[in-house]
Amino acid sequence: MRYQPNIYRLILFFSLCSFTMTAQSQKQQELEAKRQAILKEIQQINNLLFTKRKEEKSILSTVEDLNYKVNVRKNLIKITNDQANLLTREINTNQKEISTLRDQLTHLKEDYAAMVVKSYKSKSEQSRVMFLLSSENFKQAYKRLQYIRQYTDYQKEQGEEIRRKTEKLQALNTELLQQKKDKDKLIEENRLAKQKLEEDVKEHQKLMASVRKNMSSYASQIKTKQQEADRIDREIEKLIREAIAASNKKAGKSETTSKGFSLTPEAKALEAKFESNKGRLPWPVRTGVVKVKYGKQRSLIDNTIEINSNGIRIATDKNAKVRSVFNGEVLAVQSTKNGNPWILIQHGNYITVYKNLSKVYVSKGNQVTTNQDIGEVFTDPSNGESMLSFAIYKDSKFQDPSVWIAR
């Protein structure tokens, strides 16, 4: 019975295989979830940035949109490659396990066949009785009886083990075939994704060649837009500082030493609820893609120009409704001389900012609730772009909105 001495090593081997397969399966699920999210993002990019408005757009906007889509496609290809590579490792693991199972089944069947022959030769009841009666004493007879029972049970166990391993082998073979199909499908999808990426890159390069002919003019436009954004941000920061000072004055605190709002118990509770929803706040628009991320970054047109974004810029549908991301009170509704309105909503020490609006539905002092419509996004008639600028402050300090809203 060669199988029995190796039973613990086999159990350990299959336990390790099972653990590895479970870990790989979880990783595969995570990668598939990411891939589906990217596919959805690409669909939104096409719907929001490239449907019916392509001819209306300025060359700058089109280049930026193409660059954005190229980067997303590259990410899709990377994730799909990771999935295919993981499937390759899973296939190799399954093939090794199948090979080991086949070897074990061979040994099990050989041992079982030997037991059947041995049992057949001594199967008569008389042989068993004689085996017991030939015992020298009662203790030996008892031990022989136990052996007969254990041997019979072991025969049954071996037969059952052969059945279980045969079924597992069949299941693994089925799984292996499915994994190979899944891998072939991923490889084909990646081939198509790379083909589309090449098309986008060629179009991007063609437009960039046109841009380079008049780079100074385009660079000037980028700098002007950044200067206007910086000016509005300074106005917002000034307004917030004034609101903080007013709240402290009302509470009888020093306006100069306190850097945060003086909050009522209710406002503190609201702030705590806001913080507890970090990473789960709804988007300020129902559909959209983040076209400009938070923080300092190089211009996609001229990499010598640095762009500083104190929030995120979300491309969305024409005249899209803007909604409050959380319960709060409207701190201010403002607009610049030649600019579009913006709204500040206070949530305890946190303030959310919604810029580049065409319509405003609320007024200063109004109480708003989560997902309540507060205005509409401005759609630029010159290029058909609908872009919401969204920012979050804690007191007068910037926060990265992308870590606060749901992904």
From TrEMBL:
Ranges where the M23ase beta-sheet core domain occurs: 309-401
Entry-linked Gene3D superfamilies: 6.10.250.3150, Glucose Permease (Domain IIA) (2.70.70.10)
Keyword Coiled coil: yes
Keyword terms, alphabetized: Coiled coil, Signal
Coiled-coil zones: 84-111, 155-249
Domain of life, source organism: Bacteria
Descriptive protein name: Septal ring factor EnvC (AmiA/AmiB activator)
Source organism of the structure: Gelidibacter sediminis
InterPro entries the UniProt entry points to: Cell_wall_metabolism_enzyme (IPR050570), Dup_hybrid_motif (IPR011055), M23ase_b-sheet_dom (IPR016047)
Pfam families noted in UniProt: Peptidase_M23 (PF01551)
GO molecular function: metalloendopeptidase activity
Signal peptide coordinates: 1-23
